[in-house]
Amino acid sequence: MWLAWLAANLTMWMNDVAAAWLMTTLTTSPVMVALVQTASTLPVFLLGLPSGAMADIVDRRRYFAATQLWVAVNALVLAALSLAGALTAPMLLLLTFTNGIGLALRWPVFAAIVPQVVPRAQMPQALALNGIAMNLSRVVGPVLAGALITAVSPAAVFVLNALLAGVAFALVLRWKSEPRTSTLPGERFVGAMRVGLNFARQSPRLKAVLLRVFLFFLQSTALMALLPLVAAGLHGGGAGTFTLMLSCLGVGAIVAALRFPKWRERFDRNAFVRIGTAVHAVGSCVIVAVPELWVALPLMVLLGMAWISVANSLAVAAQMAMPDWVRARGMSLYQMALMGGAAAGSLVWGQVADWVGVRGAVLVAAAFGGLVLLLTRRFSVEGGEELDFSPAAPRAAPEPAFPIAPDAGPVMVTLEYQIDPACAEAFSAVMQRTRQARLRQGALSWGLFRDVSVPGRYVEYFVDETWVEHRRRLERFTAADAELRSQRMAFHLGAEPPVLRRYVGDASVPAGLNDLP
Q1: Which regions of the chain are under pLDDT 70?
Q2: How many distinct structural domains can be found in the chain?
Q3: On the CB side of 169, how many CA atoms lie within 13 Å of its CA?
Q4: Is residue 149 part of a domain?
Q5: Is 464 helix (H, G, I), strand (E, B) or coil?
Q6: Phi and psi for 417 in degrees, rounded to 5?
Q7: Domain that holds residue 320
Q8: Can you give the pTM of this predicted structure?
């Protein structure tokens, strides 16, 4: 699977390098050059969540393989048009966009596959290894693309991309995935997206990660989007300079990834993000302020180290903030935030470059990076309460007294607690965390009521969309949920557990969720 990921990333970097340099031969507009980066990353922002939902519903192995067929066909079309001399700047942007669709489809599913292959304790190392694959391809891909562009033509790059996508397709099919066991029917597409969004909305840690990754890539993309023009502006710069700078960026990322185990003994993920953001901003300023190759190349290595430090730390934080059942959807939101920041950054900094020049745009972006550090210093991606999302023994499925269709609903569940009134404040704090947990699992709504006639008596309710969704939520029970249940039970008085009742909507009496208590 790692080799498949390496081949898939080689096709991505080779396509981006060939498209970016080819665009400079088709137009002199900085905006059009920067839009190549936007066209490559925007599909992930637009299609990330649908792709993640599909990856959580269908067979992940087949889905990943299908994305590689898409990339291969797109590369063949690019090669044919390039060889025929029919490729224009708008057409190149369109096909770069469709190639980005392949990236949008494959990234969430691979991110969800990784935890199936390695245990939780080895997740940081596994993601660092994936970072090495990404950045090894960042080194090898631009070198191969540059050599083919110089010796043959951009069309040769697209032909090689098609072959590599075919190799990745074959490697993915060799992986024997473990089938997911459930007696319940698969989730519906729209419902799966809704549940994924609800999970992110109720996860403070994941929301912090999404904000940090969006802002970092919004700032750091300035240099990447304008790199062809930055390379051309260096003394003696050209196509070889552009690919050499990209290669140095990848070398730095690989070096940093190999050093992560040692560095993590001294720094937490928050420190990685802060230091990496600052180093990237300062290094970008120096590269455009001193347009010399001997200055730019070592700084690109340093920037690669900073980039992978931030990206890896945020990716690990995102993976740790999710259970497996929603992982592809959650990582698709992560990738949407990442690529959304990159796409917006490419567009914004390209326009700024039109106004104040390439150097001015990079300097403004670096200043923005300093502002981001200041404004996000309280958004932690590590520390505090780390929830354990490893699967726990699920609650027993309810046995109804009469047949209930899977799509019957909505389903309302109530639990009655009797607590010591002196513990009301502490109980409310636990129930607030319970609210977040219920909604993360897919509940549509939640509420807590106090009995006005019996002091210390509380009634909790939550609503699931259908009977099958209610049963599916029970399958999503994790160690964190078990711990939270123990905390609730510690407040409950009496030998008997809280009274639990389930109600299903009566189809003969139309009612909306707003009519529920």
Answers
A1: 135, 138-139, 177-186, 238-239, 384-385, 394-397, 508-517
A2: 2
A3: 15
A4: yes
A5: strand
A6: -110, 145
A7: 2-175+188-375
A8: 0.77
